[in-house]
Amino acid sequence: MFKKASFFIAAGLLAVAPVQADLFEPEDAVKYRQALYQTFASQMSVMGAMLQGNIEFDAAEINRRATNMANTAVMMGDTYFPATRGVETSNMRDRAWENMSDFQAKGAAFGEALTALVEQSSQSDFSLRDARSAVGAVQRSCRSCHDDYRAR
Ligand code: HEC
């Protein structure tokens, strides 16, 4: 079960950095990170299609997709360590490293919104209306970090 603390630790980058740097080359870690974010985007696109009425609303499917994201989020910490700063293929802005506590706070906000979505979507009365609000909160948490810390 995904706990609020998990993404915080996962996004908690610097604390356990030496181990990660031993496990992964910086270039590979960036590829891994980008793949995890692509996994988020794929899960979100299914939920987004439901909110837009392009596919049928299905609370269990939302719960499955949100859980996929929670299981993915805990791996994110593997990919963030100082040697990845400056990897050319990375679109992380340098200012993220300079504002690491704010970057981590945005990671924690995402973790909280995602935890709420996992929990709420497991309830039998979870409605389309609830989904709009809970999925919307996750979408906003993605955007809030990208606005400040992702290039493009
Ligand atoms: C705490 C900050 C943060 C949060 C929260 C966050 N992202 Fe990102 N995202 C980034 C950064 C930084 C990058 C650039 C990574 C790199 O290239 O090194 C990125 C990159 C991406 C990419 C591009 C990956 C690629 O192939 O280059 C996608 C897609 C993406 N994020 C989707 C999402 C989605 C969807 C969410 C929410 C469910 C989300 N992100 C939440 C910081 C965040």
Lay out the secondary structure.
Layout: H1 4-10, H2 17-23, H3 26-51, H4 59-73, H5 94-98, H6 100-121, H7 128-149
Bound molecules: heme C.
Residues 11, 30, 33-34, 37-38, 40-41, 44, 90-92, 96, 103, 106-107, 110, 138, 141-142, 145-146, 149-150 line the site of heme C.
Structure description:
It is a single chain. This protein has 152 residues and is an all-alpha fold. The protein has one domain: Up-down Bundle (Four Helix Bundle (Hemerythrin (Met), subunit A)), CATH 1.20.120. Helix content is 68%, strand content 0%. The N and C termini lie far apart (34 Å). The structure holds heme C (HEC). The site of heme C has 24 residues, from helix 3, helix 6 and helix 7.
